Amino acid sequence: MDIVIISAVIASLFLVIGAAEPLAARLRLPYSVILAVLGILIGSGAIFFLRTELTDALNPVAEAILGLPISSNVFLYIFLPTLLFQATLGMNLRRMLDDWVPIMVLAVVAVVAATLGVGYALSWTSALPLAACLLVGAIVSTTDPSAVVSIFRSISAPRRLSRIIEGESLLNDAAAIALFGLFMGFVMLGVPDPDLGEALAQFPILILGGALTGWLAARIAIWMMALFGAHELALISVSAALPYLAYIGSEQIVGASGVIAVVAAGLTLNLAGPGRLPPQAWTSLGEVWDLLAHWAGALIFILTALLIPRLLEAVQLYDFVLIGVVILAAIAARAVILFGLLPLLTLIKVSPAVEPAYRTAILWGGLRGAVTLALALAVTESLLVPDEVKRLVGILATGFTLFTLLVQGTTLRTVIRRLGLDRLSPIDEVMSRQVVAVALQTVREDVARTTEDYALPRDVVRSEAKLFGERLDKAVKATEDSEEILDRDRITLGLIALAGFERDTIIQRVRERTISARMAEKTLLDADRLIEGARAKGRNGYQQAARRSVAYGRAFRLAGLLHGRLGLSAPLVRLTADRFELLLSQRLTLRDLDAFIEGRIRRIHRRRVADLLLEMLTRRIEMVETALDGLRLQYPGYAEKLERRFIRRTALRLEEREYTAMREDGLIGAEVHTTLMQDLMARRAQEEDRPQLDIAVQRLELVRQFPLFADMDDRTIRQLGRALKTRYANAGSIVLRKDGTVKSVFFIASGAVELETAGQTWRLGRGEMFGQVAILSKNARSAEARAIAPTTLLVLDVARFRSLLKRSAALQEAVRASAEQRGLNPEALLAKN
Description:
It is a multi-pass membrane protein. One of its GO terms (molecular function) is potassium:proton antiporter activity. The protein is mostly helical. The chain is built from 33 helices and eight strands. β4 (753-757) and β5 form a beta hairpin.
């Protein structure tokens, strides 16, 4: 075939892709549906012109269209990895973890249910063997990510609904394609009734093998990309190779699922990439993959749609009955999971609740597309599959795909509207009015400055100002007159706006490199939780999210346990350094929020709401400062190193801004600017590495600050530093129980502890100890000790404490004081020991 004609056809397809998006917007139809319809029309037109006797002029073009090298391998090895990889890069994975149960149920359990439901329904109504029926079930279980995600994004569906749909559509392809591979093998081997238990037993192996392959490939790629950090194009090139090598390696070398490998590689890069790669390079990488996925998704829809007329050529009347069976069975199986299993999991507290309206939207939004057609095409290309099976698989998969796109896809907007998911809640409506009012006030100020700068005629300015002022007054009055909104809702609105501004501030600080890329995702996640907490539970939800952002999490407690019990300090070192930097980043951001409250929120919600928000902001700042002070006490000197690093990074940002301004003003030329920026980038790269935290050294410095150990020599201090273990306690956690046996003495490095025994309570703070009285008095029962603030404890075992007590006069004096406080004889207590 003439290469010129093929090139012209491919270029024309890109023109079609370019025209499809504005056409979809004009017709208010999903973009993927428009692409599918255009592809079907092009394919049908090509067949018509080849077979008609009206003209032969277009035969070369028709032959070029129908002769395009379209095979299942093109879709599975070229387009599919691109779509899956980009989808994983664009996901907010940590937010999806909040709904991981419904996502996994839909992505795995629903796929298995649909495969079995469709398979057995077809086996009862058709002459196909069970293996072929199950193969059809696996093929039609794949909800297409490009079709589903684009539609839900285009209709501005609720954020949580979009997250569940995106997570399911991404992961269920992996599950369905793995099942497709199993049943395709049975069909090619001529096994009519496969052992279902044996088939499903291979499923976890395919999943785990693919996941491990993808993770390993991504770790190697991240290591290479970190080496190439100064060369953005090289870094992006490595990312372009990653999904294809992961897919091919898993399929051809490991014998596992290539789709799972691509998903695992994308997830790994999504989680680790922002902390290892320069921010601008990470942004550019995402933009490149967005463009690649846009082209891949569009091409896969058009090219597969071109095949639809040929796949349906041999359709018979009874085939329409079978298509109906597939449709009903697939929807019924999905409905059983959505309206049967998910509510049950919610009832037994395994899964968060998914609202009925959301479940209905998910049911009707399970669109199929290019992936389903590509798998069907793979069956029709196989020489080992019987002809009748090929024919029916092609017809059933194509018919079901057309139903989901042309019926479900075109009516999904209506379903969303009928469910009320496109309407704003009362709070969101007031929020939108507030946004308009605040924006217009800001615009008025900016326009006033602009008109002065350009010295426009007064009559023109006065006329336009009057029109603008009327619109502004109307917007402000609409916001202020929202009497149906209660005060608590006004507070909620203010908190949502405040958290949104905090998120925008974080993004700006990341772009300026004041906040490192390592902390960007964590701080943005905390801001998202503040927004959703305020939206769901108002003031209480916001405060819960604020406390969570500074609390020690499970990972921190596990790291402390590994350090204390096994001596593995690396996880604790990394998490402690992350906590330092996170708290510094939070403090930097929070100090900018009071101006937003005074300047904007006070305009809309009046003084009382603004004052309450300022009070809550002050408490948040105090929480962060308290947490930072605790870390400074634990690790003297390390916070200072981080703060010095922050100052140097800020200075570099300001220096870059000055060079850019000089270049724009013509004070320096391009060559000088490039040289200066290269030097600045080199110095900035040096500041990207955090100072090392040595827990052992830091603990030794901390021990030296204890008044109890002031009379000890350096040798004893070093021995004590090695013997002491660090333990962290969140506010409210119990350190010692009343009925517990005391085996150690605890020294408070930071925080506060409340002791309770015999109806008496007293509090201890930094530099004090507890547990010594129970040990010295031979009393197995102790007072209950509870942390009343985030507390760091240094723990010393009994034998070392007794040895230390004999040598330290200061420690003996502290024991005497604590004994007297409890009404015991201090001399008798010391004499026993």
